[in-house]
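For homework, think about our next protein:
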Amino acid sequence: MFRDSLVVIGQTLKSFGINGEIKIRPFTETIAAFKRSPALIFDDLTHKVLRVRHQGDMVVVSLEGIDTREKACTLVGKLVKTEVKNLPPKKEDEYYWFELIGLKVFTKEGIHLGEITHITPTGANDVLHVNGPSGEVLLPMIDDVVIDVDVSEGKIIVDPLEGLIPNA
């Protein structure tokens, strides 16, 4: 398994019960990536997945070799990764956040606004945080603003709504 084909899908919060289950805060909209993963990687430790289930807005997993509370506690706080191939398929014009982070953002006039540093979900739409020459610019990920996303070229073309870019 190549480490560059891994993506972070959550973080362990605590052990759950006495049989080594682990409670995870997912960084995904659904638990599909957890269910599609035959193994999960905790830092550099790989564990075969035995069972995955919801518990509220958390995910509870059982892992091969982790069968006591004490063993589960060794994984607390670790980032949970899976191979990209285990992510659920995307629809056309959908992107995983990890594909967008680091992309360069340009206006339709060619002005470089900076790079996407992180994304915030708002319920209605995601908001791109772009850091560059004008400082931080927040752009809603909506059709009226985002004109083109070209992951292979590493850039996004936008038409920001009036008032979104400081000093413009």
